[in-house]
Each structure stands twice: as C-alpha cells, then as structure tokens.
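Field: sequence (string)
Field: structure_tokens (string)

Example rows 1 and 2, in order.
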Amino acid sequence: MSNDVEHAKRALRAELRERRQLLSDAQREAAAIAIGERLDVLVGELGARSISCFLSTTTEPGTRDFVTRAVRRGIRVLLPVTRADGLLDWAVATDDDEISEGLHGLPEPTGEVLGPIAVNDVDLMIVPAAAVDRTGMRMGWGRGYFDKTIGSMEKCPPVYAVIYDSEVLDELPREVHDQPVNGVVTPSQTLTLSPRRR
C-alpha cells in the first residue's frame, strides 16, 4: 500500500514540476507580486511579528521580495537552512541577504545559523509545497524537512503553504508522516483549510 502511495506521489510531483517549468517569466513575476501582497495582508491580519518563510527557487511561487519587505517593516523572518540529518536549521533574514546554495541546490541565507528549535517562537510559518488538498493535507517535494519540523513542534503556529492556483487539489495521496497546513496562499486567494490540530 505505501508503495502505491509513494508511486502516486512521485507521478504527481513530476506532473506538477513540469507544469511549473512551463510558466513564462511574466507569469512567474505576476504570481510573485500577487502572492507577496496576499502574504503582507496575512501577516497583518495575524499580527505576526516573527515568521518563518523560505527563499523561492526559480520555479517556485516567488517569496523573495515579500521577505525583503517584511524585514524592512521590522518583522523577524527566519529562513530554513537544510541539514544532512533531515532537520532544518534557521537563519535570521536581513534585507541585503546574500544567498548561497545549500543542500539539494536550494537557495539559503548566509547569516548566522540558529538551531532547529529557533522556529518554535514564530507567529506564522510560510512553507513551500508541491500541492495542498482541500482538507489541508500538504504534499512537499519528498525530502520531508517541513513534515519533520511541523510534526515536532509542541505549539505550532498557523502554517500556510505558498502554491500556484492549479496546485490546490481535491485530494492528495497521503502517508502517516504527512503534516497538514492551516491554509494556502496562491496568486488569486488566501484559503483557510484546516483547524489547528494541537
């Protein structure tokens, strides 16, 4: 059974990755602007003073301008730094952050690295995803970093995944370790999907 789920996830990820690669630069830029505006509103509505986010890759919905704006507004932004043991360290974003290539070729901050528990103090987590279904189940890209992080937090704040509109699906294949999110932010909407589970 779990092999069937893994196979279904792998096939879906390949399809989603291909769709993202077909987007034009203009489509990506428009999506990044719209998502940034929605994230600004979400941070304001939640009164978040400390958040975690991620530095988007070229095919992910853009978050970099949002991160810079948040830092300039005095919001503390933690960015993930991947570790070989499958956990995430965190670094505090600055508005002139240099970016290095981390594990798996992901963009990462170059500032002082804090341990995995640094994220326990944030008011809002903004995470990447391949897709999210209407129950709030999130499917990542298969490395498990965010599932481990969310699943290990004693008092998890609201978690919102940033995806494109076409990546909000009716249902996703799921495994025991998969962690739901509270909502999604897409270029056209901010959707609250699942109640906090702890």
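Row 2 begins here:
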Amino acid sequence: MENNKYNPRRYATFMMIALTFLLFQSCIDEDEYADTPQGNFEALWRIIDEHYCFFDFKQQEYGLDWNEVYARYRPRIDDDMSHDQLFEVLGNMLGELRDGHVNLSASHDYARNWSWHENYPANFSDSLERIYLGTDYKIASGLRYRILDDNIGYIRYSSFANGIGEGNLDEVLSSMALCQGLIIDIRSNGGGNLSYAAKFASRFVEEKTLVGYSQHKTGKGHSDFSSMEPKYLEPSARFRWHKPVCVLTNRHVFSSANEFVMYMKALPMVTIVGDRTGGGAGLPFSSSLPNGWTVRFSAVPLCDANYQSTEFGIAPDHLVELTPGDFRQGRDTIIEYARTLINSR
C-alpha cells in the first residue's frame, strides 16, 4: 500500500493524534484564572489566542487583529456584571472571528455566528422538495432517492450526521445504473461526520485524487503549524458512478458538507450548481472556562488541493438562484438547471 493512500482509519488516527495534542496543549490550570468575569474573559481570550487555527487567514481576509480585540473588549468587563452580561460580551468577542464553528455554551444560552447563511437567500424549499421526491421515494439510511421522469437519478442527503453504509450506496447507485446522470442535492446540509463525506465521494473517483491538505497546531503562536498533510480519495472498491453528476449547493452547506463539495469539485465529471457554500473549513475542538461554560473553536485547518482555504465557502461552477416565479409554479430553479445540464450532455 502506498504511504499516501487515502484510508479512513489512517486519516481518523491522524486527526485523533492532532486533537489529543490540542487537548494536552489547551488544558488550563484551574488555579490560573479565577471564576470571576475578568478571569473567565482572560481564560477565553487565551484559549482562542493559543489554539484557534485561522488567525492568519482572517487577518488577510478582513484585517482581524486578536490583540486589538482584547484591547477593545477588556474594558467592558466588570466584576460586578451579571452572568448574562458576561455571556453577551464574551459571545460578541467570539463573533469577531466570523466562524460558524466558534460557539460559547452555557446552561442558559448558546452564542453562535450563523451570518454565513442567515444573511443570504435560502435557495431551498421544503415544499418543493416534497414535490420532487413525491411520496413514493426510497430511503437508504440517510439518503432519500428516486428516478425523475427524464431518467435522471435524484439523491437528497440532508445531513452528514445521518450515516450511510457501503451497502446503502451500492443499492442506491446500482438502482440508477441506467440513468443518464445523477443529481446529488445537499442544500441546507449543515455537516456532520467527515468520514461519510469521504465515503460518498469515493464512489465518483476514477483514480487516486488529491483533494486537499490538513495541519495541526505545534505551538502557541498564530502561525505555529505542522507541515501540510495531503488528503487523497481512492476509488471505492464497490459500485462506482461514471456518468455526469450535478451537486446542488446553497449557503447552508457547511463543515463536512462543505468538505464534500470540495472533494466533488476536484472530479472531472462533477458540476457544482446553486449558491456558494457556507464554509466551515476547520475541525472543531472544545475547552472549558473556569465557570464551566464551554467554548468550541476551529482547531485543525483544512484546505483544498490548491492550498486555498474554503473557510468562507466554495463558489459553484454555475451560480443559480431559486426564482419566485418558478417557486409559484412548483418548480425548483436549481434542480431544473441541473437537469438541463445533464440532458444537454
């Protein structure tokens, strides 16, 4: 076996080592910071300062300066403030990172940054989904699927948190073997298990393909990272698809779903149709504050085969938006565009 051959177990082992290293690095001595508003502020700022993985990228993209953030938010901390007030300030500080994988969790609230999809058109409709799937669609674990009336296969995968097995993929793809093309609809898929993304994408690979790189932190500095670790997809040994494929995306495609789009975009027979994805290119890690609140943050950066970060999303090959006119007629503009592409081939 080649040393660089993609292997889910090998990749999972690498990530476990990386995250274990991060855990060791990010442990905070309970005596180092007091359970006071100031202590919790200092602990949070330091955790992010030493372990967040996108400082250099965010500085280039929009000028993020984490030291300047400290100087701006520190005066807002008062040891007489309530826990609601503290939570608001800490949540707002984390919002400066503009990262959907960065959250602050407490028993009373959950600070989050969802601007990567909240400020954009949905480009997806549950009611239209029901029209295209009908009531007699088939279900294979996390996949819902049917053959459309122009002999194009349609697969709806709404969340990579829903598992898929090799047997599921064999059955779904073999049932569509006579179709002239395939539509994979992952719109509004917020992610889940990265291994499912790789497993699914391997069914469309003709040869071992470089799809990206990963790194892990090696020190406390913002630029302290290991060398790039290449990520390859190997062709599945099971049933594989060789005909045209359209992957449908919108801004709510995030995290491992974003990673799936990155894999698929590297393949010659695949076309990405819809809106830009939401991004989320860092594997998340969690740590705790002195008061017990939990902070989650991007710790392991992932990038595509061209060394480009997809943290802020992946542009489609064909930018298509759901139009009000089509919606009123019960037509999904993005699905219909993909059908036209496949039929034209």
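free_text_note (row 2): DSSP finds twelve helices and 13 strands in the chain.
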